[in-house]
Amino acid sequence: MMTTRATTARATATVPVLFKAACPHCRARFELASDAFRLAIGASRRTTFYAFTCPDCGRAARRPAGERIVELLTGGGVRTLRLHTR
Question: Is the pLDDT of residue 1 over 70?
């Protein structure tokens, strides 16, 4: 069986990227699709973080994001907000 590039590209675009995460509040572990995360990139390590809502307890979670996490999340299609300082 042969697949074309168009078919392969279309199939890849519809498959969500899943990331493993853990809630800091209820300690639940789960997988979330890339659209469940938000990434904020600030001027320092203290202002660079990712956020999501826990599917178990419903609370918002905010975790620090180092360089490797930023790389993984942006490569996985997570929406990114770049914070600017004046």
Answer: no
